[in-house]
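Q: what sequence does this backbone want?
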């Protein structure tokens, strides 16, 4: 069984990353244009460094980072990774990729990016990942994630692989990887929030015409200070507010006390007062 790890960018200093920190921040908060660039670049790097040297002739299955209902930012990047990879595969008369999902059972309020290695493993260690092992039989698996910091997610994937007795060839792919262990893992939070210092910094991303909702965006908005949250929603379309509410329910955020005030505000406006819908002419 082959177990290969490939990262496009290796972070060795806390100031030079090989990619733009602002782009990465916007990507994490739903900028689909950046997701397009990142996914395409990752596919081209994988083709250049791996596939062009040793093509994979078996059916490949691309698997984005685990999620429950709301996809992660990696899911958007995965789409463009697949588009670029499929073009190369088709040009070389190889099977185009299939996709599947790793299901996760637990969602949490904590911001993963600010935790150290031990705290991350303690948090995620309570989770469990599930996958359709029968569908994967005799196929090469491509697990995709945006960044590798401490490897805790990778260890959970490895645990799942052992649990399901998967003997496939496996590739773990990352857009970036922290290669200098002297750098604190909270460098991830520095990147995540590089261009998002407040909820109002989301306006340009959400209203920019290339927005793809993800878990981070939903949690950030619902957890924000209530007064600013209410002001933030004033210039948002009814479609966005409905989507925000539907995504929150899908991840069971309505059962979490920390999100209750802001979620109830959305619920009351959408289904009781109807002020938001009237305001936007719907």
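A:
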């Amino acid at each position: 069984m082959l177990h290969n790890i490939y990262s496009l960018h290796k972070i060795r200093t806390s100031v030079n990353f090989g990619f733009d920190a602002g782009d990465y921040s916007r990507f994490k908060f739903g900028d689909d244009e950046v997701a397009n660039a990142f996914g395409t670049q990752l596919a081209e790097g994988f083709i250049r460094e791996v596939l062009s040297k040793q093509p994979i002739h078996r059916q490949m299955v691309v698997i984005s980072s685990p999620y429950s209902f709301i996809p992660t930012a990696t899911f958007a990047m995965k789409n463009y990774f697949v588009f670029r990879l499929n073009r190369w595969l088709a040009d070389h008369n190889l099977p185009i990729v299939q996709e599947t999902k790793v299901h996760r059972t637990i969602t949490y309020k904590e911001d993963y990016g600010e935790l150290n290695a031990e705290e991350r493993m303690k948090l995620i260690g309570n989770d469990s990942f599930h996958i359709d092992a029968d569908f994967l039989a005799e196929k090469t698996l491509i697990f995709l994630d945006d960044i590798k910091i401490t490897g805790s997610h990778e260890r959970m994937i490895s645990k799942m692989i052992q649990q399901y007795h998967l003997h496939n060839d496996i590739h773990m792919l990352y857009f970036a990887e922290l290669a200098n262990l002297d750098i604190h893992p909270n460098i991830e939070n520095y990147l995540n929030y590089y261009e998002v210092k407040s909820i109002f910094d989301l306006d340009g991303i959400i209203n920019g015409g290339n927005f793809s909702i993800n878990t981070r965006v939903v949690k950030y908005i619902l957890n924000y200070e209530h007064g600013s949250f209410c002001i933030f929603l004033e210039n948002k379309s009814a479609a966005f507010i409905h989507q925000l509410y539907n995504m929150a329910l899908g991840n069971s955020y309505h059962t979490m006390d920390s999100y209750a005030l802001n979620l109830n505000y959305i619920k009351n406006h959408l289904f009781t007062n109807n002020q938001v819908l009237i305001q936007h002419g719907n």
